[in-house]
Backbone:
């Protein structure tokens, strides 16, 4: 078995982690005889970001086992190590009906559109909710039964929102619990209309530390705690006081394994592949987009904007080619095949209207790529067009910059992507709700001078190379294990948004906030035995 990817080793001394997410980190592919033929990383930002984490830390990844149980009596828990998976995993089994209610239903037809504020797609069904609770409880049982003294428990994303509080009821208070929310957090008006909002917020508040990608998501959450649960969120900015506990909230924009992308981009054969990609497409300018095929990614709106571009600027015809890599995802959720059909119809129309000779304006690919192939595409693209309608962060934007070791390339970025908070200043930012602006943004990128491109890409790259998986991981683990009062940067981020929305008195909040007056969930024990200094088990 080959190792599935290139990882950069870290010399930071990380603790033992029990990391839990819905999505499994790797899929093991077997041949007809049941022999392991290869091991592929699961698609999506969460696994891209977190696989390197478990490469660096000692630990176990707990996730859903996507093969439905064939009978109710099958083993609910499966441990796996080997078969090319670089770290131990524990898989939590689900019954077929639970996959429908929990994953397809509550996660993908209620929470996903709710968090991205696509309200027409929110389907809040009671049976979905019941399965969601059952599965979250099962995850909590599995984690509780496998966690060793002083393990750091780190729960990821909206699928497991109830797990932090469920863990609190099951484990030794010495355990520190973190939760990271990888998608946007809706504002109070939107969340309030959702039937189970109180249970969801209380579920997350079981954690000692909660991380969000942007100030907006964090302050939305804080506001929800205040208005919907009556928590004290003001006496100590950045800490939510509930009962006798305090939970800290921090803005921790996720980074990518930037060194690894840069190393791949520097390989001669990858650069040759990039040249081949351009030759094969035979265009002067190549614009690339890479997404899961999800309605939040703005693929349909992008195709429409490109159509408008070719209609209005005939000089682009025959010169500019758009390549869209869109891997189908969540195919059992009705909104997804419906969206795919619309996207494909729009692409056909666009190609029919403007294609001529052997020039195809829009090339559409749906297959997953190996990382080397992806990087070759990043290197081949004059412009990366990353324009979701809403997106927690968007790692593709950072991966593109990390891969551009040649210092060239332009990033067109939607201001609705979380990544705009870190990269927006040096990207060409567009508002996906305004087609005219998108067309202008793409044109601007295509016509940008070499010196401006180099300047912008240089700045983008220095952000991406600085804010990496390692720095993100270290900040998040510090928040969980050694919580400190919010520093000036955090306060500025959290308070600015809160003020804009609430108009409350800015004078009350200052850098160097007072020490917490409440215990965190496990603070008294943690003082005696900080997890970072945990003895070997
Ligand atoms: P999301 O978390 O919503 O899926 P992100 O942009 O944050 O969105 O992350 C997507 C991840 O999936 C990135 O790491 C990207 O490299 C990877 N990815 C997307 N499309 C492909 C593809 N066709 N082949 C391989 N990896 C892909
Ligand atoms: O990054 C957001 C996210 O929802 C992850 O939690 C998830 O793993 C990824 O997108 C891909 O979605 P899914 O796991 O449903 O295939």
Residues:
């Amino acid at each position: 078995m080959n190792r599935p990817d290139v990882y950069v080793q870290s010399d930071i001394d990380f603790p033992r982690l029990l990391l839990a997410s819905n999505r499994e980190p790797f899929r093991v592919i077997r041949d007809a005889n049941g022999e392991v033929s290869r091991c592929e990383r699961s698609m999506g930002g969460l696994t891209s970001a977190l696989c390197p984490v478990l490469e660096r830390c000692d630990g176990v990844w707990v996730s859903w086992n996507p093969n439905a149980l064939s009978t109710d009596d099958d083993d609910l828990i499966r441990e796996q190590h080997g078969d090319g998976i670089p770290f131990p995993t524990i898989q939590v089994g689900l019954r077929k009906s639970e996959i429908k209610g929990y994953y397809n239903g509550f996660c993908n037809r209620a929470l996903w559109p709710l968090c991205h504020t696509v309200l027409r797609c929110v389907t809040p069904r009671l049976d979905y909710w019941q399965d969601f609770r059952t599965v979250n409880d099962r995850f909590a049982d599995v984690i509780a039964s496998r966690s060793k003294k002083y393990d750091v428990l780190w729960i990821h994303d909206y699928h497991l929102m109830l797990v932090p509080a469920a863990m609190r009821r099951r484990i030794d208070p010495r355990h520190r619990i973190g939760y990271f929310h990888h998608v946007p957090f809706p504002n109070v008006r939107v969340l309030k209309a959702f039937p189970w909002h109180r249970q969801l917020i209380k579920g997350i508040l079981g954690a000692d530390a909660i991380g969000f990608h942007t100030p907006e998501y964090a302050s939305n959450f804080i506001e929800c705690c205040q208005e919907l649960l009556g928590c004290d969120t003001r006496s100590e900015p950045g800490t939510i006081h509930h009962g006798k506990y305090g939970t800290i909230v921090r803005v921790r924009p996720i980074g990518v394994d930037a060194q690894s992308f840069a190393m791949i981009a520097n390989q001669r054969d990858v650069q040759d592949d990039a040249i081949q990609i351009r030759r094969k497409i035979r265009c002067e300018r190549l614009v690339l987009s890479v997404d899961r095929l999800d309605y939040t990614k703005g693929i349909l709106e992008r195709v429409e904007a490109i159509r408008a571009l070719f209609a209005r600027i005939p000089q682009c015809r025959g010169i500019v080619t758009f390549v869209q890599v869109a891997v189908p995802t969540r195919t059992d959720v009705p909104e997804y095949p419906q969206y795919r059909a619309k996207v494909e119809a729009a692409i056909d129309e666009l190609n029919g209207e403007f294609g001529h000779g052997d020039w195809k304006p829009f090339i559409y690919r749906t297959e997953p790529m190996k990382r080397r192939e992806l990087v070759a595409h990043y290197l081949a693209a004059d412009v990366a067009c990353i324009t979701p309608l809403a997106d927690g962060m968007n790692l593709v934007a950072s991966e593109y910059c990390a891969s551009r070791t040649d210092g060239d390339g332009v990033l067109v970025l939607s201001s609705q992507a979380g990544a705009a908070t870190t990269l927006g200043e040096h990207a060409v930012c567009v508002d996906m709700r305004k087609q005219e602006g998108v067309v202008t943004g793409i044109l601007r990128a295509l016509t940008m001078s070499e010196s401006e491109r180099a300047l912008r890409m240089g700045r983008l790259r220095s952000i991406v190379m600085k804010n990496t998986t390692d720095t993100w991981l270290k900040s998040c683990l510090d928040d969980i294990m050694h919580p400190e009062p919010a520093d000036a940067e955090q306060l500025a981020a959290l308070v600015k948004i809160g003020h804009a929305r609430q108009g409350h008195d800015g004078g009350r909040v200052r850098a160097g906030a007072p020490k917490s007056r409440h215990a965190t969930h496990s603070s008294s024990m943690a003082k005696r035995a900080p997890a970072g200094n945990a003895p070997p088990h």
Remarks:
- The longest helix spans residues 126-146.
- The chain has two domains: 12-184, 258-466.
